[in-house]
Design brief:
Layout lengths: L4 E2 L14 H10 L4 E7 L19 H14 L5 E8 L6 H8 L6 E4 L20 H16 L5 E2 L11 H18 L3 E4 H5 L7 H10 L3 E4 L11 H12 L16
Length: 258
């Protein structure tokens, strides 16, 4: 029993990860992984001179694809390498992003909703809140994002740090899970949050997902090569989900966003 595929891998271009792409790939191969997807934080074309410091710069995108395309060819037959991005769904800006990506061989997007609104005009999702309007906004915005049909899966779908009552959380997250199932969008159980004991993965969220019958995929959210795979972490996550009635899917079908 081991992890066959991981689609959530970062590079140094996001300014908070370490290691070379080759080190990530070699680590995955040494662990018996069959598929490794790179999905660094996507660039975004913001208005004015705003710069988002945790994502790939527009000027680094060519190097991102050139480097990974060469490695994809080099390791063909040994491991399947895929090239994508982790991106928020920002209603005002998403069309610009898709237009920009049409010039590149991007294979998939995973939705990681770190901010609401369009980032510059709304709260940071991991900040603790008991404001029901923010919970509702998160559900509405991410559902709209899934409805575009451009996201392969939903990364850390429980990233909104709700500290209010569980009844309200269930009121909104049940429709979110139902919409993900209806749209065929798997939900990610995030290993980074799991190993660091963050507010996600949240048990209540995955209890709801188990009741709804969502597809759940493991995502390493690797920011260093050693985070690509840890056997004990994987086994603990399998046990965690099993008691909630969830058997994770081993892989996903990539959706081209362009």
């Amino acid at each position: 029993m081991y992890l066959q595929a991981n689609y959530h891998t970062h590079t140094v271009r996001c300014h908070h990860a370490s290691g070379t792409e080759r080190e990530y790939i070699e680590k995955a191969i040494s662990c018996g992984m069959k598929t490794l997807g790179f999905s660094d934080h996507s660039p975004y074309l913001f208005d004015g001179d705003y710069y988002s410091g945790f994502r790939v710069r527009l000027s680094d995108v060519d190097d991102y694809f050139d480097t990974l395309t060469a490695l994809k060819k080099e390791y063909a037959g040994t491991i399947d390498i895929h090239i994508g991005f982790e991106a928020e769904y920002y209603p005002k800006l998403f069309g610009r992003l898709i237009g920009f990506l049409k010039d590149y061989p991007v294979e998939y997007l995973i939705m990681g909703q770190h901010f609401l609104g369009n980032e510059t005009d709304a709260p940071y999702c991991p900040r603790p809140t008991e404001d029901e309007k923010l919970l509702e906004a998160f559900v509405n915005q991410t559902t709209e994002g899934m409805e575009t049909g451009r996201f392969t899966y939903f990364a850390h779908p429980d990233v909104l740090n709700w500290v209010g009552d569980e009844e309200t959380y269930r009121k909104y997250m049940t429709p979110l899970c139902e919409n993900a199932k209806r749209l065929g969008v798997p939900l990610e159980f995030n290993f980074l949050g799991f190993v660091e004991h963050r507010h996600y993965p949240r048990e209540l969220f995955f209890r709801i997902a188990g009741e709804v019958g969502n597809d759940v995929i493991f995502g390493c959210d690797a920011h260093s090569p050693d985070a690509i795979y840890r056997q004990q972490l994987y086994e603990d996550a399998v046990i965690y989900l099993d008691r909630l009635g969830i058997t994770p899917i081993p892989s996903v079908t990539l959706r081209s966003p362009v």
